[in-house]
Amino acid sequence: MLSVKNLSKSFDGNTILREISLDVAAGETTVILGPSGSGKSTLLRCLNLLETPELGQLSIEGDTVDFGTDLTDEQVRTIRQHSAMVFQNFNLFPHLTAQQNVALAPVLNGKKSKAEAKKLAGQLLAKVGLEHKADAYPDNLSGGQQQRVAIARALAVAPDYLLFDEPTSALDPELEAEVIQVLMGLAAEKRSLVVVTHNMAFARRVADRIIFLDGGTVAYNGAPAGFFASDHARIQRFLQIFE
Ligand code: ADP
Ligand code: MG
């Protein structure tokens, strides 16, 4: 279970997240929706401490940090080990092959030997349908393939929670579909996924829970059916964009 209580984050005196509280159940797909600038990326980045909130509390799988005082390196490490992030722009290391990208973190964090990490990378690339691209460099892969390598790389650290920040927003529809397929596979395996996306078909079909952010607050938190049938004016206006 991942739990956020009264989390607040500001930049330059502007409050971006305002006393956010929510729970993310393990084994579920949680989709975060909301207009541009509503704080979706900032919230996701707070979950792995890429951003540090000023106030509130974060608990992941029993490890808890209270914000408002400086966190120790040990606290940051402990929280970070529970999740892995997949970014909109893939962020692969350009000078490493697909396999080397996937194998890197488990070696650096001391969890796997080089040989073990290489074997794991091969298995994870096969899982995302890219075993034939193990030796390719990112420049020689399509955007969809790069994002699938990035997903394999995230899986390589065996995170409790996978965090996706608009994983298909940089992709053409065809390439988007191949990445969505991988996400649907992970959801079917009951992985714990937190996905910021504008893909409404994915939200409707795959989400167990929808969180709708508006102006840095949670405007909806519940089942997809209730979200898509909401009579909340702000949600209706948001959904009209996708009709
Ligand atoms: P979303 O992902 O929903 O589009 P973001 O979390 O990226 O929203 O941003 C929310 C608000 O916070 C925006 O107004 C954005 O300009 C601001 N913001 C995000 N990151 C920073 C930063 N590092 N410094 C200053 N302002 C930021
Ligand atoms: Mg964003």
From TrEMBL:
It is a peripheral membrane protein. The keyword Cell membrane applies. Keywords: Amino-acid transport, ATP-binding, Cell membrane, Membrane, Nucleotide-binding, Transport. GO terms for molecular function: ATP binding. PROSITE patterns: ABC_TRANSPORTER_1 (PS00211), ABC_TRANSPORTER_2 (PS50893). Residues 2-240 form the ABC transporter domain. It holds the Pfam family ABC_tran. Belongs to the ABC transporter superfamily. This is Amino acid ABC transporter ATP-binding protein. It comes from Rothia endophytica.
